[in-house]
Amino acid sequence: MRLPVTPRCSSKLLLADSILQHSNFIPHPFLFAMLPSKGYAAQSATAPIAPFDFDRRDPGPHDVHLEISHCGVCHTDIHLSRNEWGGSIYPMVPGHEIIGTVKQAGSAVTKFAPGDRVGVGCFVDSCRTCSNCSEGLEQYCENHFTATYNSLARDGGAPNYGGYSNQIVVDERFVLKVSSKLDPAASAPLLCAGITTYSPLRYWKVGPDQKVGVVGLGGLGHMALKFAHSFGAHVVCFTTSTGKIADAKRLGADEVVLSSSPDQMAAAAGTFDFILDTVSASHDLAAYLDLLKRDGVLCLVGVPPETAAVHAHNLIMGRKKIAGSLVGGLPETQEMLDYCAEHGITSDVEVIPIAQINEAYNRMLRSDVKYRFVIDMATL
Ligand code: NAP
Ligand code: ZN
Ligand code: ZN
Prior knowledge:
The chain is α/β, with parallel strands linked by helices.
């Protein structure tokens, strides 16, 4: 059964998915053997993120039980915990940039052993059989992926809780290997911010001889600068924050444009092959379409709560395209993690104790993030 929902990243989709799963409710044997866990949760759209005790399923034969050492803080955590996209499920333990160590591997697990450094990203299950899953594009599962949080388990209807917690149990198929060469805190954001920017840059074959724009210098934006630079493109960062110009250059930008300056924007008109838009709040897409060359692509990865309006003129004058991209599938996420280990790429992080999570959200909303908050789970 297909659900008539458009934005695949939308929590409306996740809610609809959850209702579908409820209607086929079959008690899962592991529901009766629980793993007491602790974390931080939102109890409603207006409540602060606060301590929360809950149970996870006991690990089954195909499961990896991991102790979480770090979890990155994605702007999606804010959108969902505050119900900005609609359909949020409470209590909600956010977090989908998870790094940990394998504590226990089920009897049928082949890829992992206790002590391994591993990661879990934005989804923990999918149908595994549709054409998109078969191609390793689980994020576009035709029967809807199961999000790491703000979703219900596929087989039992129990809520899934995310990475702002001490441990998690995930089928090994949805667990990624993370090189011990990478710093664990700085590699956590690769599981979402990393793959969300790597995937479209690879899909649109960004490389030498291309001029590439990155709009917004936050968690996603700073990873996009690093990857686009590493792939050899001429990289331009668009920011609203004058205080980030020097950092943008250090992170890989060849040029920085203040998007609030009409003169700087006009000077860049018609010169870009590809622009990756990571902005989390409402902004003018036409201003970026104007910057594309003929046949250029504006790819949206940021998901502002409001619908953006675009006039056909902005597209037909130059056969331009607006596209979108959602995280990345398991094979590409592993490829990205291996690429990062090989090239020494990680996030620039500010490690925080979990008690500072609400302050971190408020700072992100003021664009005051350099460039990803990561929770040290030992502080839980
Ligand atoms: P973030 O760290 O908060 O960064 C967002 C950046 O956008 C800010 O630092 C700021 O950069 C810019 N910005 C904020 N408000 C703005 C405004 N009103 N006008 C112009 N620029 C503004 O957020 P993030 O974690 O990178 O996430 C960004 C977005 O991507 C969120 O909507 C998130 O839900 C979405 N997301 C999508 C996917 C996907 O698969 N497509 C995956 C993860 C996240 P400057 O200071 O440089 O202007
Ligand atoms: Zn995310
Ligand atoms: Zn599928």
